[in-house]
Design brief:
This protein is of the alpha/beta class. The protein has two domains: 142 residues, Rossmann fold (3-Layer(aba) Sandwich); 146 residues, Isopropylmalate Dehydrogenase, CATH 3.40.718.10. Helix content is 42%, strand content 17%. An eleven-stranded mixed beta sheet has the order 3-2-1-4-11-10-5-6-9-7-8, sandwiched between helices. Helix 2 links the parallel strand 1 and strand 2. Helix 1 crosses helix 11, helix 2 crosses helix 11 and helix 4 runs parallel beside helix 5. The longest helix has 26 residues. The two termini are 20 Å apart.
């Protein structure tokens, strides 16, 4: 499923094309852990009404029903699975994933660390051989491309091997949701390699890993400062010649602090929308914030559904 281009000057244009593409694939059964407030229930309702997801609500049934009734949200068509509290809801949702009762996991009104404790639990969690990481999928007004920022939510100080997985997770997402072959910029404070800034050395090593096939599916370069990663004129002034310079689509940050500040700067100063998804687990995880708009929640669902559909089709093809 390829994503059709839309003029970037249109409000929410880049999210609109992702949502439109998601409406053209089968809805994914989505286990929603502890949806006990208005924003999480309304986000689920909107995505379900659009035909993107088929939700199963996991949590204290009485509380979910009371919240829905209070805010006039009709959940009568959804399956409910009872769990007494937020941690139990997370554990039950993960258990249902193991039982093949869902293709996606979605965060409700519980804290992120509660959900991720169940996801990463030894023996019972959803870990794979790939390191788990988070991607912000950002629609920045006036910028021509959808921007992926990774990792700004899970790995605090990732080492080289972890960064390899972070990059590969983001590339796989970008390609499988139908956005093409991504240009990947590994960010630092400067665009030259220097022993005084360790992230520049790691950037150079990651580029060589890409050259040797340890990272595949994207065009990887770095280090870049933020300006010459996303602005062609800044790259030209610095004399940087690279297919990535000035037109990066995936921005790989040195650590969680840098990534979190970058994403929130874009959200609050540039008025960007930010969808969120966790990768590297057995299923994609829709990780939203209580501050997210309904549009961002819908986009998070759309990205996850497109990714799940690509995985589903790949499994069918491999079994044939």
């Amino acid at each position: 499923m390829s994503v059709q281009p839309i003029e970037a000057s249109q409000p929410h244009a880049k999210y609109d094309r992702l949502i439109a593409a998601a409406k053209n694939v089968p809805p994914a059964v989505t286990l929603v852990a502890h949806p006990c407030d208005e924003s999480s229930l309304r986000g689920v309702k909107e995505a379900a009404d659009a035909g993107i997801i088929k939700p199963t609500l996991v949590g204290p049934t009485a509380k979910i029903k009371a919240t829905a009734a209070k805010h006039g949200i009709d959940i009568s068509g959804y399956e409910l699975v009872d769990a007494p509290h937020s941690e139990a809801a997370a554990a039950k949702a993960v258990e249902l994933i193991h039982a093949a009762k869902g293709e996606l996991l979605m965060k409700g009104s519980l804290h992120t660390d509660e959900l991720m404790r169940s996801v990463t639990a030894k023996g019972t969690g959803l870990r794979t051989e790939r390191r788990i990481s988070h991607v912000f999928v950002m629609d920045v007004p006036g910028h021509p491309d959808t921007l992926f920022i990774t990792d700004a939510a899970i790995n605090i100080f990732p080492d080289l091997d972890c960064k390899r997985d972070i990059i590969q997770n983001a590339i796989d997402l970008f390609t499988q949701v139908g956005l093409g072959t991504p240009r990947v910029a590994i960010l630092s404070a400067v665009e030259t390699v220097t022993s005084k800034i360790p992230s520049t050395i790691e950037a150079a090593a990651l580029c060589k890993m890409a050259d040797r096939g340890q990272i595949t599916g994207g065009v990887v370069d770095g280090p870049f400062a933020f300006d010459n990663a996303i602005d062609k004129e800044a790259a030209r002034i610095k004399g940087i010649k690279s297919p990535v310079a000035g037109q990066a689509q995936i921005l790989v940050v040195p650590d969680l602090e840098a990534g979190n500040m970058l994403a929130k700067n874009l959200s609050f100063l540039a008025k960007a929308d930010s969808a969120g998804i966790v990768l590297g687990a057995r299923v994609p995880i829709i990780l939203t914030s209580r501050a997210d708009s309904l549009r961002a929640r819908m986009a998070s669902c759309a990205v996850a559904v497109l990714y799940a559909d690509a995985r589903r089709r790949a499994q069918v093809a491999s079994a044939a």
